[in-house]
Design a protein that fits this description.
The chain has 178 residues and is α+β, with helices and mostly antiparallel strands. 16% of the residues lie in helices and 33% in strands.
Length: 178
């Protein structure tokens, strides 16, 4: 979803998280499932600027597949110019995993860490239950680069009488484009 009154998609595509990323449905390394990344280049009609948005879901079993997938995505993000945002389920703990380190080493920032303020739990996978206050397991991240600034980041723990709408808690960031 995006705000059609502000943003217009001008280009988009997919690539597979494999050694042959341009071969549809390809998989490599120790991946248990076919995984991919989707990207969109948006035009901001208000500021008359462009930015790229990437989204992915890394493998839930393959440790090497997660690392290589993150490196491939970082490489593709570095190929574009200007502001860039990456969201996804990374199936790896933020600040404690190789995929996270690969994105940081590539020069991208984690909105939770970089934001002026953050709120909500430090757990993003809850299996339809309340977050464990003694746990630290952010596996859903919002990364950015290219001059973007993070004002806030929140893990949304919305529920109705203990019923959660998903097995993951949404992560929302307020990002300021340059």
């Amino acid at each position: 979803f995006y705000r059609t009154d502000v943003f217009a998609p001008v280009a988009y595509g997919n690539f597979w998280l494999s050694e042959t990323p341009d071969v549809p449905a390809s998989k490599s390394w120790d991946s248990s499932l076919t995984r991919m990344a989707t990207w969109v280049r948006f035009y901001n009609m208000q500021s008359k600027t462009f930015f790229h948005y990437f989204n992915t879901h890394l493998d839930h079993r393959g440790e090497q597949a997660r690392l290589e997938g993150a490196k491939l995505i970082a490489s593709r993000m570095k190929e574009v110019t200007g502001p860039v945002v990456l969201t996804g389920d990374f199936n790896a703990t933020a600040e404690k995993s190789a995929p996270y380190a690969a994105l940081v080493e590539a020069g991208f920032a984690d909105s939770w860490v970089a934001a002026e303020q953050h709120s909500g739990s430090t757990v993003t996978f809850g299996s339809f239950k309340a977050p464990d206050p003694n746990s630290d397991g952010r596996i859903d991240w919002i990364f950015f680069g290219g001059g973007i600034r993070a004002k806030s980041c929140e893990t949304v723990n919305f529920n109705v009488e203990g019923r959660y709408p998903s097995d993951h808690y949404p992560v929302v960031a307020e990002l300021v484009l340059p």
